[in-house]
Amino acid sequence: MEFRNLKQQFQILKERMDKAVAEVMAECNFIGGRQVKELEEKLAAYVGVKHCISCGNGTDALTMMLMAWNIGPGDAVFVPDFTFFATGEVVSFEGATPVFVDVDPDTFNMDPDSLEEAILAVKAEGRLDPRVVIPVDLFGLPADYDRITGIAHRHGLRVLEDAAQGFGGMYRGRRACSLGDAATTSFFPAKPLGCYGDGGAVFTNDDREAEYLRSIAVHGKGSYKYDNVRIGWNSRLDTIQAAILLVKFDAFTEYELEDVNKVASWYTEALRAKVKTPLVPEGYYSSWAQYTIQVKDETERTTLQQKLKEQGIPTMVYYPKPMQGQAAFGNLQSYVECEVTEKLCNTVLSLPMDSGKDKSEILKICETILREL
Ligand SMILES: *Cc1c(COP(=O)(O)O)cnc(C)c1O
């Protein structure tokens, strides 16, 4: 069994994919081809935001948005303690200070109370200027944007939605990638909408921001490529990846997103009585980047992983370490306790998940889990 069966997904799309890639080859418009523009327009319309600016990957997307907001030394950026490294990395990369915030034990997403506590602690200390909150739509589920944005705006901070894992999700009638003051996503192959290499995008309703982002993504270009008005860098989505994403986007919106929700419901139905399954609160819709259960402790998790492995069932631990525990952040000051994150790092286990899994596969996994726990 595959943890995420990208091979099977490719076989289903192979004919359309071969044709789409061959077209790019024949046209030789490898950078900035028509497919890039077409994709950006489709994605912007789908999520309900005015501008989609594609770029090299989800990490660049976050970085470019922080650049657009002029975030740097002396600024505090609030990031969940439980997420993929890049969410905090980009903050340090820009010379600003990540402040880690605890998460909710049921949704895995940023805890609004912990956020407010952290903002107040940073303000009380008076050393850093609180500027941005980066909520993450972890494992496909949007964070609680009404509460988070309320707190952030009340304290004068902007909200940057990290929807690298969240594309396709919904929150109170609105799509992921439209839930912050700006948003970013990733097209890394294993993300909900993945390409066949690296790719990413930024979403904003602000015309001036969009123009700035398009400029820094191409060496700070001005009116044309050889007119350079600022120091930028090079971060573009290849035309081949855009062509691949156009095919994947159709599959994603036609059936994959629905199917992956069906798979999640099979897991939850079978496990709910005995296992802590992921919560999707009322008014939320997940794109299920991961299906993550919680067990009692690290020992139980190790044993369960081993038993599942013996049955040919792969599992993953997302994430084994809190962000604050990462050596790369050195001895960053901590402003709030992140006890939930610490517990989750020892108890979470992600199960095989993709839209192509059939019910018998899922039931076999569940049977093994129920037998061992
Ligand atoms: C994958 C991921 C990123 C980074 O995306 P890349 O395209 O790999 O650079 C950022 N944030 C989160 C939460 C992610 O899962």
What does this protein look like?
This protein is an alpha/beta fold. The chain is about 40% helix and about 15% strand. It has eleven helices and twelve strands. It has helices spanning about 5-25, 35-45, 60-70, 85-95, 110-125, 145-155, 205-215, 240-270, 300-310, 340-345, 360-370; strands spanning about 50-55, 75-80, 95-100, 130-135, 160, 170, 175, 180-185, 200-205, 285, 290-295, 350. The strands form three sheets. It has a seven-stranded mixed sheet with strand order 1-9-8-5-4-2-3, with helices on both faces. It has a three-stranded antiparallel sheet with strand order 7-6-10, with no helix packed on it. Strand 2 (about 75-80), helix 4 and strand 3 (about 95-100) form a beta-alpha-beta unit. Helix 3 packs across helix 4 and helix 8 packs across helix 11 (about 360-370). The radius of gyration is 21 Å and the shape is globular. About 45% of the residues are buried. Pyridoxal-5'-phosphate (PLP) binds near residues 57, 83, 136, 164 and 188.
- Helices, by number, come to 11
Rounded Rg: 21 Å
Strand numbers in spatial order across the main sheet: 1-9-8-5-4-2-3
H-E order = HHEHEHEHEHEEEEEHHEEHHEH
Determine the CATH topology of the largest domain. Aspartate Aminotransferase, domain 2
Topology overview:
Blueprint: H1 6-27, H2 34-47, E1 51-55, H3 58-68, E2 75-80, H4 86-93, E3 97-101, H5 112-125, E4 129-133, H6 145-154, E5 158-162, E6 170-171, E7 174-175, E8 182-186, E9 200-204, H7 207-216, H8 239-271, E10 284-285, E11 291-294, H9 298-310, H10 339-347, E12 348-351, H11 359-372
Parallel strand pairs: 2-3, 2-4, 4-5, 5-8
Antiparallel strand pairs: 1-9, 6-7, 6-10, 8-9, 11-12
Bound molecules: pyridoxal-5'-phosphate.
